[in-house]
Amino acid sequence: MSVSVVVGAQWGDEAKGKIVDLLAQRARYVVRYAGGSNAGHTVCTNGTTYKFHLIPAGVLHPHVTAVIADGVVMDLRAFNIEAAALREQGVDLSRLRIGLGVHLTMPYHRLLDELEEAQIEGRIGTTKRGIGPTYADKAWRIGIRVADLLERERLAQRLQRVLQRRNPTIQRVYGAKPLDANALLEEFARYAEQIRPCVCDVPHLLMQAVERGEPILMEGAQGTLLDLDYGTYPYVTSSHPVAAGACLGTGIAPNRLTEIWGVAKAYTTRVGEGPFPTELEDEVGDRIRNRGREYGTTTGRARRVGWLDLVALRYAARINGFTALAVTLLDVLSGFPTLKVCVAYRLNGKEISDFVADAPTLARCEPIYAELPGWHEEIDHCRTLSELPPNARTYLNFIEEYVGVPIRLISVGPSREQTIECL
Ligand code: IMP
């Protein structure tokens, strides 16, 4: 029996989609537990590239039931576009399940996110997918859940209530056009019929699966350093990408988790605003960005790029309790004479080796690097550890020793086959 969680160990975009796809071969359920259509997961297999934002990447496997659990927020307009694109590629979505407790990201959430991000001051650099406003309404207890959507009368009442609060803000604070409750009711009542067959009590479904000993894989979105509580607040997302978030988002009890996978790039990237101690704003950074095709799946934005920050990675290992690491995009680092990894920070003239999540303090931290020899060869054809150049192995050993977690998967290219399993 295994209940595994796959967690981003950095600021998101760690190529979790590929790792989930690999591990899903052994799973019966693949479950998204947090976030919404701000996420972007790409899976390349048999020459086809599939893009996921809300739907768990595990749906590609015919033996898998893909679940959108209650901790997720769901934009039904975006969901319909994604589902149509996947169906066109021949993906069978009949095994998709959606939780009754999932909160809906409504058009006013997306509008409020866009209006807020249009302000210069205090901008977070969000994906403008309405994620923050949706979770805010959830916490304010005026959110609309899938369970509300399924009963027209209930949906009408919830819409009235929330628009009484949100429309004045849209109009008076931002000077934008208010939304019409009736138009939304008609549109969303149609969506209700489309998703009704997939809706179920997800905590119940998963608890039964756990009791039957069926393997479950929980798929994180974003990354540890974007966690609402443990990330670099306020430059974070509004949910809990960390492993504990998988329990909150699915109803699976913490003592049921058996494996916690941390996925980290061999370097670091970040999208949006916020401190980034190892950021490279030079030609080395440009080279990594180009080799790694570091442009967002969801927004197309160029990602900020930097050396691997081991201080941050060890923090992620502790917060999540990683039992295994998957290191991705190692192939991107071929061709550098030396590679730097951050092993400590200098703060107020003192050396510190613990991560600082407080954003203004982290912004004052200067990285202290260890330098490791690089390798010249391309490694995208390597399939075993022994095929890797010795310096690439030294680099991996350094990470493993510093973080104290075994590396069990190494990705050297986007396709399923370009993977090294370390047994
Ligand atoms: P939001 O999640 O759209 O509210 O954005 C909040 C912060 O999280 C911004 O810095 C985004 O760039 C970042 N973010 C959200 N989703 C992702 C993701 O999937 N990958 C990387 N960064 C993300």
> CATH superfamily of the largest domain, called what?
Adenylosuccinate Synthetase, subunit A, domain 1
Cα Rg: 21 Å
Ends: how far apart? 19 Å
CATH architecture of the largest domain: 3-Layer(aba) Sandwich
Strand neighbour order, sheet with most strands:
9-7-5-2-10-1-11-15-19-20
Mean pLDDT: 96
- How many beta-strand segments? 20
Oligomerization status of the protein chains: single chain
Each distinct ligand: inosinic acid
Helix content: 25-40%
- Count structural domains: 3
Low-confidence stretches: none
How would you sum up the global shape?
globular
CATH top level assignment of the largest domain: Alpha Beta
- Fill in the CATH topology of the largest domain: Adenylosuccinate Synthetase, Chain A, domain 1
Approximately how much beta-strand content do the residues carry? 15-25%
Question: How many alpha or pi helices?
Answer: 13
User: The biggest beta sheet, please?
Assistant: 10 strands, mixed
Q: Structural class, judged by helices and strands?
A: alpha/beta
Give a structural overview:
There is one protein chain. By secondary structure, the protein is of the alpha/beta class. The chain folds into three domains: 162 residues, Adenylosuccinate Synthetase, Chain A, domain 1 (3-Layer(aba) Sandwich); 92 residues, Orthogonal Bundle (Adenylosuccinate Synthetase, subunit A, domain 2); 156 residues, Adenylosuccinate Synthetase, Chain A, domain 3 (Alpha-Beta Complex). It contains 13 helices and 20 strands. The strands form five sheets. Strands 9-7-5-2-10-1-11-15-19-20 form a ten-stranded mixed β-sheet, sandwiched between helices. Strands 14, 16, 17 and 18 form a four-stranded mixed β-sheet that branches. It has a two-stranded antiparallel sheet with strand order 3-4. Helix 3 packs parallel to helix 6 and helix 6 crosses helix 7. The two termini are 19 Å apart.
